[in-house]
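Postdoc handover notes: sequence design on the structure in folder B. Input tokens:
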């Protein structure tokens, strides 16, 4: 999920290539070329086996946003997911745990699949199964369960990768592959587990709803301000279309959303909403940039194709994951 801070499209003359995230218009420049394919950074043993970037099939005229997405499909999917999660959180809060766990599992599988396509042999089975343990064990045992499951899964990934070709064959790129596997474990299941911890606190369903609303506010504010006013790129080396004007729009929308949700939903001091709004914009933006850089290095547009107009599940969670942690930290500390 992107914060939507895009530079207004005065770049028709520049020919900047786009690699956006849904609902944001954020785009990536510097398309992958055969001579400098980013995945080659991972192919230390077989650089000629680089996986080419997926071809982008243009949507029918009149249906795409400036982000290059099928806008009606993206809006329909986003609205459907949002309403479903709101209904779950309001009427059956504990159902959120298996629903979110399924999303975490699919996102982990998407990332592992993309990494293995780039010849990064992360241990998929322990990563996915252990990631579920990291997420689920926060329910009965809180932060201790999360920490224990994370440590056990990290160790399992190391041992699995060490012996996955048998006892007689030394593993290739062991350090790189295990380090990236542990990064993926922290990036997806560990950060997602803070949503479970947040849910289990008093009025936890409203706390989770608050952080989700603020991430959406950041998205919408960034997209609107970026489209209308974006002129100054934030991080052109990673996401050339992400603008400071859009970032400002994200801040305005998220702070307003924080004031309203913390006051009306959580019946708390409105200044907590300001702190939360600013914090979530910062980490949501960073989360989007992290995934953008990973996809840039892998030479892909999306992590998956499950959600029409959006890409994969991971393409929806990129800014949600760090936001779950910051929401838990701020609300647990200040409420």
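Designed sequence:
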């Amino acid at each position: 999920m992107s914060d939507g801070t895009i530079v207004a499209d005065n770049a028709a003359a520049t020919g900047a290539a786009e690699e956006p995230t849904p609902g944001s218009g954020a785009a990536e420049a510097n398309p992958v070329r055969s001579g400098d394919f980013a995945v080659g950074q991972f192919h230390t043993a077989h650089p000629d086996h680089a996986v080419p970037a997926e071809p982008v099939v243009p949507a029918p005229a009149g249906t795409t946003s400036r982000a290059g997405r099928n806008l009606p499909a993206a809006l329909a999917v986003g609205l459907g997911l949002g309403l479903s999660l709101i209904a779950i959180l309001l009427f059956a809060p504990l159902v959120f745990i298996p629903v979110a766990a399924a999303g975490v599992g699919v996102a982990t599988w998407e990332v592992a699949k993309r990494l293995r396509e780039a010849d990064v042999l992360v241990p998929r089975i322990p990563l996915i199964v252990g990631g579920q343990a990291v997420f689920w064990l926060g329910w009965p045992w809180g932060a201790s369960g999360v920490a224990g499951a994370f440590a056990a899964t990290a160790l399992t990934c190391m041992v699995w990768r060490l012996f996955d070709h048998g006892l007689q064959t030394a593993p290739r790129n062991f350090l790189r592959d295990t380090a990236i596997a542990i990064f993926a474990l922290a990036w997806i299941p560990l950060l997602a587990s803070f949503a479970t911890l947040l849910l289990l606190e008093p009025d936890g369903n409203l706390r989770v709803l608050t952080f989700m609303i603020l991430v959406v506010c950041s998205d919408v504010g960034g997209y609107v301000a970026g489209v209308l006013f974006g002129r100054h790129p934030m991080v052109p080396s990673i996401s050339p279309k992400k603008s400071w004007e859009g970032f400002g729009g994200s801040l305005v929308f998220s702070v307003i959303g924080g004031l309203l949700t913390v006051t009306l939903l959580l019946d708390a001091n409105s200044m907590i909403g300001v702190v939360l709004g600013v914090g979530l914009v910062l980490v949501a933006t960073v989360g989007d940039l992290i995934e953008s850089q990973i996809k840039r290095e892998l030479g892909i547009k999306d992590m998956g194709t499950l959600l029409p107009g959006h890409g994969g599940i991971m393409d929806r969670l990129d800014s949600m994951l760090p936001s779950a942690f910051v929401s838990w930290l701020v609300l647990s500390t200040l409420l």
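Context for whoever picks this up: DSSP finds ten helices and two strands in the chain. Don't rerun without checking with the PI first.
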